[in-house]
Amino acid sequence: MRASLSRKSGPRAVICSKICSCSAVSLYSRPLLAQRRQASTLNHMVTTTESFSKPINNSFNYKLAVKDNVATEGLPTQCASKILDSHASPFEATIVTQLRANGAVVVGKTNMDEFGMGSHSVNSMHGAVVNPLSDKDAPLSAGGSSGGSAVAVKTGDAQIALGTDTGGSVRLPAAYTGVIGYKPSYGMLSRHGVVPYANSLDTVGVLANSIPSIEDAIFSSGIYMQHDPNDPTSLRTATRQRCSKACSSNLPAMEKLAIGIPIEYNIAELDPGVKAAWENVASQLEAQGARIVPVSLPATKEALCAYYVLAPAEASSNLAKYDGVRYGVRGKNGDSAGDTLYSEARGSGFGEEVKRRILLGTYSLSSEAIDNYFIQAQKVRRRVQQDFDRIFRLDNPLYEERQFDLADMEADMLLDNKRGPPQVDFLLCPTAPTFAPQLSDLQNQSSVDAYINDVFTVPASLAGLPAVSIPAWPKDGKFPVGMQLIGQFWDDLRMLRMAEKTMAILRAA
Length: 509
Hints:
Main location: mitochondrion
Distance between the termini: 26 Å
CATH superfamily of the domain at 45-298 and 421-508: Amidase signature (AS) domain
GO molecular function: ATP binding; glutaminyl-tRNA synthase (glutamine-hydrolyzing) activity; transferase activity
Helix content: 25-40%
CATH architecture of the domain at 45-298 and 421-508: Alpha-Beta Complex
Strand order of the largest sheet: 1-3-2-4-6-5-10-11-9-7-8
Keywords: ATP-binding, Ligase, Mitochondrion, Nucleotide-binding, Protein biosynthesis, Transferase
Protein name: Glutamyl-tRNA(Gln) amidotransferase subunit A, mitochondrial
Order of helices and strands: EEHEHEHEEHHEHEHHHHEHHHEEH
Structural class: alpha/beta
């Protein structure tokens, strides 16, 4: 990889254990399609090619794997769904074109949860993705929904992989497989050409084995400053410039950093091994001079519920187009008269989890439920964002600076002084509450049990904030723990550099 952006190196860093006290283009045609890998033991690639996608810039080349809900020239985009079997997009996703212009060579498409709906990459017409860290007789979850992309990076099939992150779908696979998963600020990377799940939450994410690789691909290349007029959620150039001016890229010395430990994230479901790793990372950072501060995010308790109202609601609208006429494979007995065609196409084309979320979303948008569910979830989302803005030292550059009103504060919120709660530079918390579960155990889980895996990743998604999962390897364990850093909006570069520094400290410990 190219040399990454120059950095100011402060003292090495890591934290302490106050956690215990914290409660294009060309259409797809079969003769051109590279054949699917046969009987892969990990099942992470659904289409592979060695030379199909040529880089535009030959001075710097790297292998890029692309999640199968991101349109790629010459390759099908199926979203791991039977309803899009052999579908080819007539154009390429902007982010793929941008990366190819900077030297990426697409090596294939990766397996995933159908339409991005899942936490373990098991809801796929191709079958489950297997974690490469698994024992021979006990296959583990690779996380989802971007599990195939995480495995492609872990196995060396790609140096960088694209995923999508709606509520944690890049960060969870990164945590389970021991790679780095980065979710950028909402609106930074173009979603044009990405099959939507929930428009107000979807982001394109990046998985890699090193932070400099991510910096090179997204920041050194200048992609993070490029507005895409084809994507209505892409921030305009003037807004990007204003945000960049408000957010410095230089990470200060550790002695000047405050790291927040959210007390609401210390939940009963937190695995003791994950909690111990969290405490260890915190203590390592504190030993290097960082100040560890317990902070309160009261709306976190309702964040997961709000997400599973909002995301299915948007999904039910987005997936309405798959009707067997405009999109979707027609049923064998369907006709063009109406109900039979529609019901057969959707009934046979969608998997069980997708059907479940469509029904949930349709109900929450119904006239009798919208006020009690969808509207209330939107209010929770706003409170989640306000909680983050309240505890970050850096102001949110999207909004005018406003005075913090103590009357708006929860009665049990911790105060730093009489002016309000403590303010921090970054938040540190686990990415997932448990280690990677065995695939066999998932068969006995209810859908609600699977949703709990998103409890630590959903809040940042609701607020549109950048977050990155980095691996922390316990000395007495063979499986990694994902540690998540969350930053203020558009503070992506400083957050990534903090992540790199944290990883260096953990390696040296």
